[in-house]
Amino acid sequence: MEEGEFSHNPLMEFDELIDAWRVNNGLSLELLAMLDDDDFDLKPGKGKTIRSNFTHIILVRRFWAEERVKPAAETITKLDWKTASREEIVEGLTNSSNVMEAAFAHQAETGRPARWTIGRFFAYCITHEAHHRSQIEIALRINGREPSDKLLYNLWDWPKK
To answer: How far apart are CA 65 and CA 61, in angstroms?
Structure first.
């Protein structure tokens, strides 16, 4: 290899991307587990409730998957943003995460839809979900349900994930 070159292994990079996606989904599940059922209807001001932030994440995953792996996307249940239970949200996050893995594979293999590279699509999905997790944390804080530092730091202890 010439100086400045590096080994390029697309399979390894895709496996790492999927691992990062699984960490992302795990963070959402951990945040959900930190909540009391009474927290689900809290809002950060005029925004979405905590429950509707989670159901929105699931619905957007379905939307993205419909463009790439439509039959699999149809397995993602559309949850009611006002009444979805913890169990329904856990199931929705888990199933939609698996479907998104298939959508990422489709994007990486075909490059379709062409307006997205796999890197750009992946980054968009992760950023979107991090935004909604932040809204959930803000809703907790504004409503006097400040999560403990230990719980919040645990969300960032990625080597254990």
So the answer is: 6
Cα separation, 152 vs 118, whole angstroms: 30
CATH number (domain holding residue 48): 1.20.120.450
Single out the residue of 73, 70, 69 nearest to residue 59, CA to CA.
73
Rounded to 5 degrees, what are φ and ψ at 71? -60, -40
The answer to the question of residue 34 being in a domain is yes
Is the pLDDT score of 2 beyond 60? no
Domain residues for the domain of 48 are 10-156
Return the amino acid letter for 139: A
Task: Report yes or no on 3 lying in a domain.
Answer: no
Q: Total structural domains in the chain?
A: 1
The residue among 102 and 146 whose pLDDT is bigger is 102
Residue 39 is assigned to a structural domain of this protein: yes
Helix, strand and coil content of the chain, in percent to the nearest 5, comes to 70, 0, 30
pTM here is 0.90
Range of weakest confidence among 24-28, 88-92, 129-133, 155-159: 155-159
Question: CB of 12 within 8 A of CB of 91?
Answer: no
Q: Which amino acid type is present at position 158? A: W
